[in-house]
């Protein structure tokens, strides 16, 4: 057929027919996903499964080109497949799934095992970790990808050969001490966190259990501070807020004035009484409510529309926004609608913006525009089509090494991790893959396998499972004591906790789709993680557990080595290029890194 | 939802990169694509989605099955229809804010005036040499940027041709301008306002590190000739001086911070040599400023006048986070902001005098952005050439001295010349070159670029072989990637933000790397 000619020429006959016969999974049909699907289809893949749990929103349309205005609120997975149907030149079989990739009943192990290759196009750490783990269970190669604004990255993962997604620690979001948020804020982000995580949740959001008992919250607070006056204040603050919540039913006219009076006047006045907090200045000034109230009332009579979201607003304007959004939220709560904070839910966003700005005003902190607060409160990451197009092209291109290679060693040697950036000289930088990290808890310290169990898991007692484990993996012969931990981090069994032995697995909350981690109490034997899949009878996988190399604490790296590794090269956030002396050094590192990646074959040890 | 609000929600994720100022410039832009290729559709897709004002596709050929096989924005039912029309239709559906146009007339029939309606022109793939030169030279004179974009197999190139690029809002990492060595009177007064011995321990631990450094430097100067520590010994001494000011170096985070950021005290407040160079640029207007003088150069002139008087640049006003209490930090912030505002007002006044008129609000915004970015302004002189003797020289030299990667069979500069020769071959032979054309291909290369056959190294030859072996343009994955890069360049030029490519980029998909070259 002539239509295949061009791809056969580019990819070679053999590789092209492999791709035609290949079934692949694409997780995520968002920014990268839309681009990736286009590239996969025009590369001629035989069967493509698309999974996404999300629905389409307006802010997707600036880059997710398979969606239109009319598709808003529809399922992403179903919509992409529908909208590419007329462009399906190679007649790829497209199978959409609207659901959460971590849903084990919708996507059991047997479903996963049909795939030859997995492409991640995800936007969150949790799902990425999950897919990485599934790829490890089944030894399916995985292409990890991600973008942030103009920056992006693809990382091919060959399970147990190259670094897996968890081999390198990932940056986790910053948390703030409770006291900073509740008593002594000093930055805009503190006020925003207060408004979103404390105030909003306490008042409107019933999905999180705010009604923890008093003793519990006191204990929590005692961990954070030993200032008893401050603890008393915080407890009282929360109690009063809970009392106030019951007034919502009385409508906005009653509720809102009480709310403002309490959180911006009374709470602040009482906070000021705790002298120990203000020893070094930074005293807040309660809102001048008696003066602002009449001004607000007259403003409320006009229909002001504060359109420009990038403008920083006055306290009065913020009060106005608080009022307007508060009225709507009260109505929604009274009508029984569940209300949760969502950056795309205008009422909830407005309320949080106004409340946090009023608090900032009171504490002499910089007041921010709605546009800026939205980014912080909603964890918004900038995104455009260009970077996604670059990354998706790279993603497919790099994965094709797998289809070309005769063995995993060849695929490993020929593949690269590639970084994309806005820096004028560093559009793309590739680096050879790195071998798995010997301290990785996901792919090195733990072996993985699938354990089969009939649906009636209750027939199997923990005692029988223990017996099976000890025999299959020679724990007994080697005198290892083991412990069993369930996937949700519950201890099921260890030498000092034998209560569960007579229980059936179902009583312990373990069934199809659960995972179990078996570890030896002493010694350097690999852990074992078992995924429970449906089978005819109880069956454990044949796995030879390895002894782990004795952990030798690595000598601390000298500064020079860190530079050579080039770990700092790509992350703008990490480099402070403020001081002249430092700049030159950084330039040098960049130079070195470029030379390494552009003129020499990237060495395996080169960590990028 | 109001129209403005809907728009700001739709474009929210990109407004965080280039703000409303960049967005409104993008919406005023008209981009032209020559040749409705797969790479071209990728370029336009990435511009239509963020809302470019207008796009025009120029292509006189009809859609074939081969086009449909690699271009996502064409379907089988389009075969036989003009390519430009088919692509325009599907791309137009992506965003109603963007107006699509197509032109099916052949390039040679388009009069010169046709081109002046565009802000940027992108040419993908082959255009007859004679025509290419004509359009290129015309656009260069009109100062309309031209992007030449080529893909063959796993290779791709992007070349920006334009007379001059100036960018104020480079988004480069600005250095904090703290003036520790030259505090202005108000800052100095504040730095002197602390009664160190009288402060209790908490307050002592909240003196901002900048204040510590200002005082330490003053103290140091009273014992030394030089205005700041210069060598290792002096720096060691200065470090000791700072730690002696602390009550407890283990607990006072502000003093720990002062030591960590001690080079802030070493930094000399001065006008960089790059700026002096800019002041001497012939583009800087004399005493009389014409109506057509670009604002950028008027501002440079105003800045020169400012520097002549004060020997300093206007303060940017931004302050890093510091271990301090709110009161002191806010006070410090206000001091820096007030000084920055004052400097900016002076620059605005100077600009008004130069222009002999008031500034528009968008010009005022530009001055604000200018003041924040003085240390990272970008100016690049372009050229209208497709090749240069220097580049040919480094192609021959780099590949012969064994500098290249021994495991690889290609070098990136050879990719660029290979792709130029690829188009040259089509021009001469009227078809795409194949592996058996290697000899003719090489001859064309030597003739066109005046290279002796003996100078062609193995790596150049291997690159040429690779090009002839995978001799298809617009392979989807290369097209997606190169289209992404090219459209990113268009976005930078449209929004006047970030630093555009200066001026040629080669992508090597076999090694997954890119390299940049400057063609002078």
From TrEMBL, chain A:
Sites where the protein binds Zn(2+): 164, 167, 440, 443
Top-rank lineage group of the source organism: Eukaryota
GO BP terms, alphabetized: protein sumoylation
Pfam families cross-referenced by the UniProt entry: ThiF, UBA_E1_SCCH
SUPFAM superfamilies assigned to the protein according to its UniProt record, in alphabetical order: Activating enzymes of the ubiquitin-like proteins
Coiled coil: none
Keyword Endoplasmic reticulum annotated: no
InterPro entries the UniProt entry points to: ThiF/MoeB/HesA, ThiF_NAD_FAD-bd, Ub-E1_IAD_1, Ub_act_enz_dom_a_sf, Uba2, UBA_E1_SCCH, Ubiquitin-activating_enz, UBQ-activ_enz_E1_Cys_AS
Binding annotation for ATP: 28-33, 52, 60-63, 76, 123-128
Pathway(s): Protein modification; protein sumoylation
GO cellular component assignments: cytoplasm; SUMO activating enzyme complex
Active site per UniProt: 179
Domain Ubiquitin-activating enzyme SCCH: 308-374
Subcellular location: Cytoplasm
Keywords: ATP-binding, Cytoplasm, Metal-binding, Nucleotide-binding, Ubl conjugation pathway, Zinc
GO molecular function, one term: metal ion binding
Residue ranges annotated for the THIF-type NAD/FAD binding fold domain, each copy included: 8-406
Complex and partners: Heterodimer.
Family from the record: Belongs to the ubiquitin-activating E1 family.
Name of the protein in its database record: Ubiquitin-activating enzyme E1-like
Organism: Candida tenuis (strain ATCC 10573 / BCRC 21748 / CBS 615 / JCM 9827 / NBRC 10315 / NRRL Y-1498 / VKM Y-70)
UniProtKB/TrEMBL annotation, chain B:
SUPFAM superfamilies according to UniProt: Activating enzymes of the ubiquitin-like proteins
Main location: cytoplasm
A GO molecular-function descriptor: NEDD8 activating enzyme activity
Residue stretches making up the THIF-type NAD/FAD binding fold domain: 11-512
One cellular component term from this protein's GO annotations in UniProt: cytoplasm
GO biological process, one term: protein neddylation
Pathway: Protein modification; protein neddylation
Record flagged with keyword Cytoplasm: yes
Family: Belongs to the ubiquitin-activating E1 family. ULA1 subfamily.
Function field: Regulatory subunit of the dimeric UBA3-ULA1 E1 enzyme.
Protein name from the UniProt record: NEDD8-activating enzyme E1 regulatory subunit
Gene source species: Candida tenuis (strain ATCC 10573 / BCRC 21748 / CBS 615 / JCM 9827 / NBRC 10315 / NRRL Y-1498 / VKM Y-70)
């Amino acid at each position: 057929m002539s239509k295949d000619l061009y791809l056969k020429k580019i990819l070679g006959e053999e590789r092209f027919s492999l791709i035609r016969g290949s079934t692949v999974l694409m997780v995520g049909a968002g920014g990268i996903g839309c681009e990736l699907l286009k590239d996969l289809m025009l590369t001629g893949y035989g069967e493509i499964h698309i999974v996404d749990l999300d629905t389409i929103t307006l802010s997707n349309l600036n880059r997710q080109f398979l969606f239109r205005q009319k598709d808003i609120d529809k399922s992403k997975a179903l919509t992409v497949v529908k909208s590419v149907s007329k462009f399906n030149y190679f007649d790829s079989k497209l199978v959409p799934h609207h659901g959460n990739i971590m849903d084990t009943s919708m996507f059991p192990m047997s479903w996963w095992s049909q795939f030859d290759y997995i492409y991640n196009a995800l936007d969150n750490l949790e799902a990425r970790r999950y897919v990485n783990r599934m790829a490890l269970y089944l030894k399916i190669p995985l292409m990890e990808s991600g973008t942030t604004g103009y920056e992006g990255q693809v990382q091919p993962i060959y399970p147990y050969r190259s670094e897996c997604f968890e081999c390198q620690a990932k940056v986790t979001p910053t948390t703030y001490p409770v006291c900073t948020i509740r008593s002594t804020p000093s930055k805009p982000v503190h006020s925003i966190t207060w408004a979103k995580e404390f105030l909003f949740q306490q008042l409107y959001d019933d999905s999180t259990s705010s009604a923890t008992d008093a003793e519990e919250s006191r204990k929590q607070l005692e961990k954070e501070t030993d200032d008893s006056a401050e603890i008393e204040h915080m407890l009282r603050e929360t109690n009063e807020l809970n009392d106030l919540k019951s007034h919502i039913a009385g409508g906005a006219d009653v509720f809102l004035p009480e709310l403002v009076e309490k959180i911006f006047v009374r709470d602040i006045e009482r906070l000021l009484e705790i002298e120990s907090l203000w020893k070094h200045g930074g005293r807040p000034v309660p809102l001048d409510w008696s003066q602002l109230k009449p001004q607000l009332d007259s403003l409320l009579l006009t229909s002001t529309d504060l359109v420009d979201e990038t403008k920083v607003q006055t306290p009065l304007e913020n009060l106005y926004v608080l009022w307007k959004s508060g009225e709507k939220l009260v109505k929604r709560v009274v009508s029984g609608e569940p209300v949760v904070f969502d950056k795309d839910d205008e009422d909830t966003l407005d309320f949080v913006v106004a409340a946090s700005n009023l608090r900032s005003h009171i504490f002499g902190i910089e007041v921010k525009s709605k546009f800026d607060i939205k980014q912080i409160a909603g964890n918004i990451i900038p995104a455009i089509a260009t970077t996604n197009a670059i990354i998706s092209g790279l993603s497919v291109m790099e994965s094709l090494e797998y289809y070309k290679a005769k063995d995993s060693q060849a695929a490993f040697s020929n593949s690269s991790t590639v970084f994309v950036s806005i820096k004028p000289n560093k559009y793309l930088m590739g680096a050879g893959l790195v071998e798995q990290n010997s301290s990785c808890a996901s792919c090195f310290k733990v072996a993985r396998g699938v354990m089969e169990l009939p649906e009636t898991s209750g027939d199997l007692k923990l005692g029988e499972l223990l017996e099976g484990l000890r025999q299959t993996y020679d724990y007994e012969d080697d005198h290892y004591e083991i412990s069993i931990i369930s996937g949700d981090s519950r201890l099921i069994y260890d030498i000092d906790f034998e209560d569960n032995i007579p229980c059936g697995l179902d009583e312990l909350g373990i069934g199809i789709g659960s995972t179990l981690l078996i570890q030896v109490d002493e010694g350097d034997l690999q852990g074992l993680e078992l995924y429970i899949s449906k089978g005819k009878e109880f069956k454990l996988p044949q796995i030879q557990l390895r002894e782990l190399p004795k952990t030798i604490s690595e000598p601390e790296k000298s500064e020079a080595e860190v530079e050579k590794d080039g770990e700092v090269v790509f992350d703008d956030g990490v480099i402070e290029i403020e001081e002249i002396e430092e700049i030159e050094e950084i330039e040098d590192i960049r130079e070195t890194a470029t030379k390494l990646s552009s003129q020499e074959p990237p060495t395996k040890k080169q960590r990028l | 939802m109001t129209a403005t609000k809907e728009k700001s929600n739709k474009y929210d994720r990109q407004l965080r990169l280039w703000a409303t100022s960049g967005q409104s410039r993008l919406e005023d832009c008209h981009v032209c694509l020559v040749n409705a290729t797969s790479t071209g559709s990728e370029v336009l897709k990435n511009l239509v989605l963020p809302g470019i004002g207008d796009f025009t596709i120029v292509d006189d050929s009809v859609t074939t099955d081969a086009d449909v096989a690699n271009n996502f924005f064409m379907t089988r039912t389009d075969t036989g229809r003009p390519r430009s029309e088919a692509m325009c239709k599907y791309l137009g559906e992506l965003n109603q804010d963007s107006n699509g146009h197509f032109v099916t007339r052949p390039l040679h029939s388009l009069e010169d005036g046709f081109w002046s309606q565009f802000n940027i022109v992108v040419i993908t793939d082959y255009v007859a040499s004679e025509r290419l030169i004509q359009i290129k030279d015309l656009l260069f004179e009109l100062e309309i940027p031209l992007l030449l974009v080529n893909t063959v197999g796993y290779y791709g190139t992007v070349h920006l041709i334009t007379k001059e690029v100036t960018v104020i809002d480079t988004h480069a990492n600005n250095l904090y301008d703290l003036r520790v060595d030259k505090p202005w009177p108000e800052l100095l007064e504040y730095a002197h306002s602390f009664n160190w011995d009288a402060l209790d321990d908490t307050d002592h631990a909240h003196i901002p590190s900048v204040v510590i450094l200002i005082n330490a430097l003053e103290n140091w100067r009273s014992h030394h000739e030089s205005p700041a520590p210069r060598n290792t010994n002096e720096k060691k001494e200065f470090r000791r001086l700072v730690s002696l000011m602390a009550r407890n170096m283990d607990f006072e985070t502000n003093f720990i911070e002062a030591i960590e950021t001690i080079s802030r005290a070493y930094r000399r407040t001065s006008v960089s040599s790059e700026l002096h160079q800019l002041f001497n640029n012939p583009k800087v207007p004399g005493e009389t400023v014409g109506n057509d003088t670009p604002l950028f150069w008027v501002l440079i002139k105003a800045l020169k006048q400012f520097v002549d008087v004060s020997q300093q640049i206007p303060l940017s006003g931004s302050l890093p986070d510091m271990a301090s209490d709110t009161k002191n930090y806010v006070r410090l912030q206000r001091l820096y902001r007030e000084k920055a505002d004052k400097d900016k007002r002076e620059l605005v006044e100077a600009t008004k005098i130069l222009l002999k008129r008031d500034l528009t609000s968008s010009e005022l915004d530009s001055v604000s952005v200018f003041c924040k970015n003085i240390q990272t302004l970008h100016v690049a002189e372009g050229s209208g050439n497709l090749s240069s003797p220097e580049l040919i020289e480094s192609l021959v030299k780099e590949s012969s001295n064994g500098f290249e990667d021994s495991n690889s069979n290609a070098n990136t500069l050879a990719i660029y010349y290979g792709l130029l020769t690829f188009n040259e071959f089509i021009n001469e032979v009227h078809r795409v070159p194949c592996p058996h054309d290697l000899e003719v291909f090489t001859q064309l290369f030597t003739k066109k670029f005046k290279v002796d056959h003996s100078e062609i190294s193995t790596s150049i030859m291997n690159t040429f072989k690779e090009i002839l072996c995978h001799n298809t343009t617009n392979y989807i994955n290369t097209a997606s990637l190169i289209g992404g890069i090219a459209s990113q360049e268009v976005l930078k030029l449209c929004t006047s933000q970030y630093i555009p490519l200066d001026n040629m980029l080669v992508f090597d998909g076999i090694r997954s790397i890119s390299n940049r070259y400057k063609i002078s």
